[in-house]
């Protein structure tokens, strides 16, 4: 693969900091209350959800441009769940809620095609269950 860009970030745990190499991302991290943490910082699942939602919206735009359709008004919400335990391991689940413009033709088909080209979808395929919900 010809790599066009590499993001670099360093974190020191769920209760710490995450900082990108360029300093644009500088966040306090905290485990969510639901997992026994303070909930007073960003958590990895939120970061993954934001990245996946943005990437999927971009992939949908690329697919739609190929069919000369406008998806500027699209909205993608990613819900990332985490579960499991220390002994058996932890895992993730993802629900992608895609809100499409009412006049978009073949919206479900475009979402399915975007799921085939999105880098996050390709990275999770076979490892993380991803549900696509078209609204």
Count of alpha/pi helices: 3
**Mean pLDDT, rounded to whole units?**
94
* First-last Cα distance: 34 Å
Task: Output the strand order for the largest sheet.
Answer: 1-2-3
Strand content: 25-35%
Shape: globular
CATH fold category name of the largest domain: GMP Synthetase, Chain A, domain 3
Helix content range: 25-40%
The CATH architecture assignment of the largest domain turns out to be 2-Layer Sandwich
Low-confidence stretches: none
Brief overview, please?
By secondary structure, the protein is of the alpha+beta class. It contains three helices and six strands; from the N terminus they run βββαββααβ.
For this entry, give a set of tags:
135 residues, alpha+beta, N-terminal domain of TfIIb, three-stranded antiparallel beta sheet, three-stranded mixed beta sheet, 27% strand, KH_dom-like_a/b, OsmC/Ohr_fam, Ohr subfamily peroxiredoxin, OHR
Describe the structure.
The protein is of the alpha+beta class and 135 residues long. The protein has two domains: 1-42, N-terminal domain of TfIIb (Single Sheet); 44-134, GMP Synthetase, Chain A, domain 3 (2-Layer Sandwich), CATH 3.30.300.20. It has three helices and six strands. The longest helix has 23 residues, at 44-66. It starts with 8 loop residues before the first strand and ends with a strand. The mean pLDDT is 94.
Topology of helices and strands:
Layout: E1 9-11, E2 17-20, E3 26-28, H1 44-66, E4 75-85, E5 89-99, H2 107-117, H3 119-124, E6 130-134
Parallel strand pairs: 5-6
Antiparallel strand pairs: 1-2, 2-3, 4-5
Helix pairs in contact: 1-2
Family: Belongs to the OsmC/Ohr family.
Protein name: Ohr subfamily peroxiredoxin
InterPro entries: KH_dom-like_a/b (IPR015946), OHR (IPR019953), OsmC/Ohr_fam (IPR003718), OsmC/Ohrsf (IPR036102)
């Amino acid at each position: 693969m010809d790599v066009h860009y590499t993001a670099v970030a360093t974190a020191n745990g769920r209760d710490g900091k995450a900082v990108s190499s360029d300093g644009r991302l500088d966040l306090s991290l905290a485990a969510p209350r639901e997992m026994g943490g303070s909930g007073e910082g960003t958590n990895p699942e939120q970061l993954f959800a934001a990245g996946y939602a943005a990437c999927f919206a971009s992939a949908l735009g690329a697919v739609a441009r190929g069919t000369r359709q406008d998806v500027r008004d699209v909205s993608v919400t990613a819900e990332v769940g985490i579960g499991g335990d220390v002994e058996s391991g932890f895992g993730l689940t993802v629900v992608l809620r895609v809100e499409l413009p009412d006049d978009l033709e073949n919206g479900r088909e475009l979402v399915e095609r975007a799921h085939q080209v999105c880098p996050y979808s390709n990275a999770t395929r076979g490892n993380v269950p991803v549900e696509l919900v078209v609204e």
